[in-house]
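Supplementary Text 2. Reproducibility record for the structural model of the 370-residue chain.

All settings were left at their defaults, and a single model was retained for analysis rather than an ensemble. We include the record here because the model underlies the residue-level annotations in Supplementary Table 4.
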Amino acid sequence: MIFMKKIRLITITLLLALVSACSNKVKQNELSMRNNATVSAGFDTYISISLASTTQEEFDKYFNNSVEEFKYLNELFDIYNDYEGVNNIKTINDNAGIQPVKVDKPIIDMLEISKEFYDLSNGEFDVTLGPVLKIWHNYRDEGLALMQEGKLGKTPSLDELKEAYKCTGWDNVQINKEDSTVYLTKACAGLDVGGIAKGFATEYVAKSLESQNAKVGFVDAGGNNRTINTKLDGTPWKVGIQNPNGKEGSILVVSNEGSMSFVTSGDYQRDYVSEDGNQYHHIIDPKTLFPANYYHSVSIVTNDSGVADALSTSLFTVDYETGIKLIETYKEKHPEITLEAIWILSSDKKIDTPYSKQLDSYTVLYTKGL
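Retained model, structure tokens:
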């Protein structure tokens, strides 16, 4: 099914696009759009929720429940911090080579999706890449701190990264669904679920809202966007795709009706400049063990936000032709879903496809359903 109708170019920001989804007139006892946001629900980002409700009290109940669910999932998927009474991804990593860890169901569910995408992408999407990503995290943190002082960061050596890579692989992961345990059999192994956690959490919260009978809404978790049904006035939702320069708002807008997820992976976040003159971002290519450099961003439009998150990460680290095949393979296995993609790359990179536009200093590629 071709779900998306068109792409429109705009000059407004994503924030304005989201505001346009909500009515400014809020009346008691009428179904009206209300909005609230927080920066304290985890995932190192803001969480914004817009919902149709008849009263402010009803909306506040929806919102507060959602914030608590985001906090809960943030604790489960955290790889850096311990929480009292919580076995999370860090607990699994800390017990690598020692013992299985009993975990809550969302961790099992998220890891099963991760394994599906590992197989689908021939290892391009790999949450077992934790030992390699830990090295990059340390170098990136140091580099960002040095940039504040007007200095340049350093680059990990390929030998250091290759040594860490020996500790990766799904053959080191044992999942026991019956006992709800996860065990990393190699002591140096480690999971990093940053490529899917926020999308999974966004979908989890959106489905929870739907189960609470929320009729119309919009969940935005730091750019991971999920709509709930069609807007009250019947007009399409509009979601902006950020300009890769990070300063000029949206480069284009995706317009749709109904429930859908929109997720973007980009090279313009969490990046630092190294002494070697290169700028390094956070999306690592498992083939090279260095940040992928095919695109500035990849955006996915599909039904499930966790799937969108995993796919945007997977496509970011492969060339365009491989990405198209990956999409086709997933759609063959899941014919019921809508799935479209947008790639933004430098204008000097030309790819032979009829589904391409030149926008400012960028080449924009998109699947034919758009």
